[in-house]
Amino acid sequence: MLDKWLVKEGGCCSGDSHQAMGRREGKGAMPAHLLLQAKAGIASIGLEPDGTVSQWEASAEALFGYDASRMIGREVTSLVPSPEEGDTLKGFFKACLRGACVSDVSTACVTRQGDMCFCRWYAVPALRESGETGLAVMVKDVTAQTLAVNELNRARSQARSLFSSSPIGIFQADIKGRILVVNPELSWMLGYESPAQLTESLQNVSCLFSDPRQAESFLFQLYEGEQLNRFRCQLRRREGGLTWALCYGQVTRNAKERVNGFYGFCINISMTVRVEQELKRVNEELRRASIMDATTGIANRGHFDECIVTEWNRHVREQSDLSLILCDIDHFKRYNDTYGHQAGDHCLARVAEALVSCARRPGDLVARYGGEEFVVILPSTDLNGARHLAETMRCCIEGLAVTNERADLVTHVTLSLGVAAMVPHGGTREAELVHMADEALYRAKELGRNCCVVWGEAEG
Prior knowledge:
Elements: E1 6-8, H1 16-25, E2 29-31, H2 32-40, E3 42-47, E4 53-56, H3 58-64, H4 68-71, H5 83-97, E5 105-110, E6 116-127, E7 133-141, H6 143-165, E8 169-174, E9 179-182, H7 184-189, H8 195-201, H9 212-225, E10 227-236, E11 242-253, E12 259-268, H10 270-291, H11 301-318, E13 322-329, H12 332-339, H13 341-358, E14 365-370, E15 373-379, H14 383-400, E16 415-422, H15 430-446, E17 452-454
Parallel strand pairs: 16-17
Antiparallel strand pairs: 1-2, 3-4, 3-7, 5-6, 6-7, 8-9, 8-12, 10-11, 11-12, 13-15, 13-16, 14-15
């Protein structure tokens, strides 16, 4: 019916295809079905059984650029760029003439302007006016679709190549956490021989993690934010070991834009973690060395100076008692002169160990103050509590019975102790408390040593 409808000149079609059809149908009008074919990129062609063109419609001229005078009597395979594609097209036409059920064939074509395009050919046997059988052919320009498909295939090929050769582990899971696919790097990272072996062994994402709570946290954070970065965790290896990994995640969506799963990305950071742990260990050793007295193994004077300031400031805020015990080994110089420095160091270590055993609270600090002097910080401790602990320490050192033949009155090592306590406030400094304890210690030595003196009670 549409072949009797005409579209007037100046209608919706314009350009070269319009002019070509205008020449074919006469100026001012053209069949509507030809106009629609041209707009759809479809050409109509009639072929002889040997493949030569017997009819060349204006739609074919619009598609390929050749007019009927150039194409009628010419083989239609002249439109394709290679003999191989020409043979493909001939085979397709022969099959159609035999009545074979062949739907279509696609080839590249070259226009009169030398441009390459891609076409899909459709053909059916048709009875000509002469009574001979020929072919009615429709050709559709599918260049845009072909280029899009080629680009999509190229992108897919690149994606597959990146997936397979990526230096980080990649996996895909559905909305229920079932593992769909993994790449070789992830299977190697977790000790599996191939991706297939991993997916057969671990069917759910939760099985990747060493701790179910880590798996729950990973999935919750991922679905909550639709993307997850730098999730540090441990993954379970096939042989039962663990691998540290930095994991990332990105949700995926279906055609209706609903979340249907996610991609996971895992970077092996086991070496980094080992280096971090070793660095932490070394730093801890350096820190201990910087705050520890090498002879006694307890805190040194520098650490005491830092701690007393910290505790002072804290007690200023809390307005609670802070106590200090300053103690000195009696006649230690004579001990050193008699037994030598090695024995003197051993004596210092034993005294330090005994003092630490008496100060049992986690917040208490025993430090070597200098030479044969020791100092004890007692946070949140009043004067009575400090006095009691000082006497306990004195008795403990006396009970060690470390020989000192050069002592004046006793034959073993003893300790003199000065005790002070106060509630720090903004108008005072920690040096005042140290001074009070030092004066009490001086008084203990004046009273004959091997005793405890509390500051403020020194004259009693």
